[in-house]
């Protein structure tokens, strides 16, 4: 009973880790796709409605898929609540909040940091160019993330199940050997050789 219960927890725990790793590849692909959508919405707010940046970021954060919300909403909150904070600083805080939800690689964070430095402090035309350039780069990153997802997602799902089976088998073998240890050979009173087979002795 205890062996079965232990095996269940091992299978459940390791399967969860394998599936979580596989899910991460999917989330990265979705993240970069929805970030492009977010920049398109931000472009509309800046170019066509001339919305103040803190309000524009908040609006985008409420419209965008929840996977991207930490970036836009955190940056908007910083700009609205803290005086003396630059747009780049607020945006960087948003990038760090996003990184906690979906781990970003260093070059991906650098791309977003650089985008933040060109946001809000230049002419509208320059901001639109900055948005377009960053969106194109995010599109390339999305393609790479999708390739990695196609290559690794099923592998991690398979490894999670296979490794669980191997661990459970090893545990059952160990528990069986502990529960039924080999019996020692009986002692003999003379110097003759004896052999033991399943608890019996044969003396010459």
Labels describing this entry:
mainly alpha; two-stranded antiparallel sheet; 6 helices; 4% strand
Structure notes:
This protein has one domain (2-158). It has 204 residues and is mainly α. The chain is built from six helices and two strands, in the order H-H-H-H-H-H-E-E. The protein has helices spanning 2-47, 53-63, 69-81, 87-101, 106-117, 124-179; strands spanning 194-197, 200-203. The model is unreliable at 192-204 (pLDDT under 50). 24% of the residues are buried. It has a two-stranded antiparallel ribbon.
What's the oligomerization state? single chain
From N to C, what is the helix and strand string?
HHHHHHEE
Radius of gyration: 30 Å
Q: Which structural class do you get from the secondary structure elements?
A: mainly alpha
Tally of discrete structural domains: 1
Average pLDDT value?
Answer: 80
- Beta content comes to under 5%
Strand order of the largest sheet: 1-2
What's the total number of strands? 2
